[in-house]
Amino acid sequence: MVKNFNSFRLLRSISGILDSVTLYPVSLAEIDRISFTRLNRKFEPFIRICRIFLSHSTLTLQASDVETFSLLIPMETLFEEFIAKVIKEDPDYFFGPQTSVSTQQYIGKLASSEDGSGVFNLQPDIVIKRGPDVAIIDTKYKLLDDEKRKYGVSQADMYQMYAYVTKKDAISSMLLYPDTELKEQRTFYYNLENEGKRSVPLYITSIKLSYDLTNEKEWSEFRKDLRNVLTKFFPNLNLLGFTKLN
């Protein structure tokens, strides 16, 4: 499914060329036995990327000795939509009953122009509402730096979350990052003066993505990890009894 006509035409041509090719299951062992010469060297990058898929591996932000052609995927969008979909499919599991989850919800404008019209949309990645309480998540597909005092969290991200928190009168917020292990980096606090002083936490947290999500057991472990991260939004939430039902 493509929008560009030239891409569609090329894909139709490729499909016609491959019509006579027989599908054949290939194992990793067979791939590893392939010997590349000057006659088949041009196919090596494509075989390498196929090996990554067949081994249920992934391309990550870390350096490695795997060489392949550039495969450009908007990972920040993929990460955001993946986390949002997992939460929206089963909000009761993560937060208990009577919880609503919305994604890319328009919550208003940041400012107004001289003619009174609003400018700069406010649209957080994930908004979680449980009773009167609201919590906000924004996903960031980049690595945190443990050696930096602010862990590499940008000032722009801090201001963005502040705008979301004040607009929705949220009780907590989170910047969620991918990682190879589950860890909470640190917590900042927004000290709000309006309507009485209150302190709203901003959790800087990462979620482990190195599970094989095609494996039922590891998929379950991933969901548990994610729930452990998310339930801190509502400190008084007790899922102990509810967990037994899942």
Overview of the molecule:
- This is Restriction endonuclease.
- It comes from Methanosarcina mazei.
- The protein is an alpha/beta fold.
- It has two domains: 1-72, no CATH class; 75-243, Trna Endonuclease, Chain: A, domain 1 (3-Layer(aba) Sandwich).
- Helices cover 34% and strands 23% of the residues.
- The strands form two sheets. The chain has a six-stranded mixed beta sheet, with helices on both faces. Strands 2-3 form a two-stranded antiparallel sheet.
- The protein is elongated and about 75 Å long.
- 17% of the residues are buried.
- Residues 238-246 have low confidence and may be disordered.
Quick recap:
With 246 residues, this protein is of the alpha/beta class. It has helices at residues 5-18, 28-32, 44-54, 75-89, 91-95, 155-168, 216-230, 240-243; strands spanning 99-103, 108-112, 118-122, 126-130, 133-139, 172-179, 183-192, 198-208. 34% of the residues lie in helices and 23% in strands.
SS summary, helix count: 8
**How many strands appear in the DSSP assignment?**
8
Looking at the structure, what is the overall shape?
A: elongated
* Run of helices and strands: HHHHHEEEEEHEEEHH
Secondary structure: helix percent:
25-40%
Widest sheet: strand order? 1-4-5-6-8-7
The whole-angstrom Rg is 23 Å
Q: Percent of residues in beta strands? A: 15-25%
CATH topology (fold) name of the largest domain: Trna Endonuclease, Chain: A, domain 1
Integer tally of domains: 2
**CATH architecture descriptor text of the largest domain:** 3-Layer(aba) Sandwich
Q: What kind of sheet is the major sheet?
A: 6 strands, mixed
What's the pLDDT, averaged over the residues?
A: 81
First-to-last CA distance? 37 Å
Low-confidence residue ranges: 238-246
Label the structural class: alpha/beta
